[in-house]
Amino acid sequence: MFRNQYDTDVTTWSPAGRLFQVEYAMEAVKQGSAAIGLRSKTHIVLGCVNKANSELSSHQKKIFKVDDHIGVAIAGLTADGRVLSRYMRNECINYSFTYESPLPVGRLVVQLADKAQVCTQRSWKRPYGVGLLVAGLDESGAHLYYNCPSGNYFEYQAFAIGSRSQAAKTYLERRFENFADSSRDDLVKDALMAIRETLQGETLKSSICTVAVVGVGESFHILDQETVQQMINAFDIVGEQEGPAAEPDAAAGQEAAVDQGGSTGEGAAPMDI
Amino acid sequence: MASKQPENSLLGPEADSQRTLYPNVTGTSVVALKYKDGILMAADMGGSYGSTLRYKNVERMKAIGKHSLLGASGEISDFQEILRYLDDLILYDNMWDDGNSLGPKEVHNYLTRLMYNRRNKFNPLWNSLVLGGIKNGEKYLGTVSMIGVNFEDDHVATGFGNHLARPILRQEWHENLSFEDGVRLLEKCMRVLLYRDRSAINKLQIAKITEEGMTISQPYSLKTYWEFSAFENPTQGAVGSW
Q1: Which residues fall within 8 angstroms of residue B206, CB to CB, at 6 or more apart?
Q2: Quick one: which of A271, A252, A273, A255 has its CA closest to A21?
Q3: Where does the record place the Proteasome alpha-type subunits domain (chain A) (predicted)?
């Protein structure tokens, strides 16, 4: 993406009808470490890659429980993600208090999207630099949504965001038609396989990934490291290459800094997809 | 006066005249029970102005959204205000236009918050409410008082209904009452209330809510019997001048 004279201000349109600041915010999502989500009729699994900056530090928290029936995985500026998680938790708890009922995830997602849109139309604000995979249950079943900085949201059967997410997406595209009827454990297995795709040959172990599950009769919770490691071992996928990883993204490290050596400058704006 | 309040504020000396101190036009008991297909609710059509039975065509039960039925006793104008609040609530719920809708449990809890918050401001909505409904096969029946006391039960009543109707219901209610048995039971309760509650009138409606929706009967009256021998010559044998 090249710098130009229309990209300083989020409230400045380009002659081609684009808001570059918003597109740059979407770039920040692509730089973050990968997060994936997939759902069946009754369960949703979220997974993410957790790389610590150095051996001395702990890794960043990228999956947040929002309520018993809703959880979110983020990619991009984790600080922005934390703030939005706090907003979501607040909305859920206020709704629960007034109506003694869980907030339908579809409504929360719309509120989140409207909040993101505000930041694309105020000269004194900037768009949130984080993409959210929102997993939740409501009356009509299990749902997985993707909220992006542009203020758009989409519902998915399975999706992946962040760096090297294309590899995971390719894997999920091959398998997604079976997900609706998958058992909970098969779903987790598929999530781990998808995470492995983003690791480009690196060994998958529970210390570098996080997996969370929510489903009918199962509150949102993050699986502990032992359970995850057992599942990795049980499914015998350590070191196994199931297929060549897709072409590596031009993206560099895991930091959320906006990188200039990125993807398309022409074509449809990402938020229009 | 040091500070000036806006005219519609509830603070300051001018505001006291605007707070609810006592009710003016009131409805009497509401009785409701769960039956096989949903909820049955009964209320008479009277609006009393103090001790005068002034209004005889007041509908004290209304449908809320697709799944709920609200009955109220107490101040009629406050009931109308509550209906306005719920109108807005249901409207916004419908405007989402997604697969979700507020069920009776949600409406009941919303009303609890409403009543309790008004009570905390010393400006209550002077009503006792009965909220019943059925959603996805689950029946729900609850009540909220003007001070925010709320609970659910298989049968509920307001006002005099608590003292006269609930004992009958405790004896004779059981799970999976048929529609006819439910109506018979409610009529038995309403008859006792008619005999003994001076604010009751002999013109009532029975409302039913099931998965299909809400229907409310045309107003009708109960058969009463006044020829008990004990009531003939009531003053015979009475001593004294009062």
Answers
A1: B40, B41, B42, B183, B186, B187, B216, B217
A2: A271
A3: 6-28
Residues 119-148 of A with CB under 8 A from B: 138-140
Determine whether the interchain pair B113/A104 forms a contact, defined as Cβ–Cβ distance below 8 Å: no
Q: In this predicted model, what pLDDT tens digit does every residue of A225-268 receive, in sequence order?
A: 999 999 999 876 554 444 444 333 333 333 333 333 333 444 45
Count of positions (residues) in chain B: 242
Element (H, E) at A222: strand A218-222
Contact B52, B226 (CB under 8 A): no
Per-residue pLDDT, A246: 37
Tell me whether 0.90 is exceeded by the ipTM.
Answer: no
Overall average pLDDT of the B53-76 stretch: 97
Mind spelling out the 3-state secondary structure of chain B? Answer: CCCCCCCCCCCCHHHHHHCCCCCCEEECCEEEEEECCEEEEEEECCEEECCEEEECCCCCEEEECCCEEEEEEEEHHHHHHHHHHHHHHHHHHHHCCCCCCCCHHHHHHHHHHHHHHHHHCCCCCCEEEEEEEEECCEEEEEEECCCCCEEECCEEECCHHHHHHHHHHHHHCCCCCCHHHHHHHHHHHHHHHHHHCCCCCCCEEEEEEECCEEEECCCECCCCCCCCHHHCCCCCCCCCCC
Catalytic residue check, B20: yes
A102: contact with B, CB 8 A cutoff? no
Per-residue pLDDT at B18: 76
**Inter-residue contact A87 to A95 (CB < 8 Å):** no
Could you say which of A98, A100, A104 has the minimum Cβ distance to residue B100?
A104
Kindly report whether the global pTM for this prediction surpasses the value 0.95: no
Distance from CA of B218 to the nearest CA of A (A): 33
Closest CA–CA distance from residue A101 to any residue of chain B (Å)? 6
